[in-house]
Amino acid sequence: MSSHKKKTDHGELEFTRAAYDTLEDYQQDYKVVTRHSVWTTEQRGVLAFVATVRKADQESSERPIITQTDYWPSATDLSWAAFWFQHCFKTARMVEAWALSERERIKGSQQDMPAGTSK
């Protein structure tokens, strides 16, 4: 008896790989560390996936820069791998937005300083 892969098996693998590539990319690009937690919810069969992002040099800090939660399964009919990719992708976009706001904050504080001074 031989096993046959379903057509969707390859797609699931690709979603999973893309999710991990997304995680690696934004963690390296923005010097952050992400921890994922999975929790049961009060709704039977629904899991909460929580991504907690901290600066890499402040990994032990109690204050994350981003906490992002998604639930699976949900009203959106997504496979596990597609959900995982979406969760990682959303977290990456939040990290990018945080990094942009940090750059703008730093740029603004430098413009407010008197000429000839530096931080």
Question: What can you tell me about this protein's structure?
Answer:
The protein is an alpha+beta fold. Helix content is 47%, strand content 21%. Strands 1-2-3 form a three-stranded antiparallel beta sheet, covered by helices on one side. The longest helix is centred in the last third of the chain and has 32 residues, at 80-111. The radius of gyration is 19 Å and the shape is elongated. It starts with 6 loop residues before the first helix and ends in an 8-residue tail after the last helix.
Task: Present the secondary structure layout.
Blueprint: H1 7-30, E1 32-40, E2 47-55, E3 66-72, H2 80-111
Antiparallel strand pairs: 1-2, 2-3
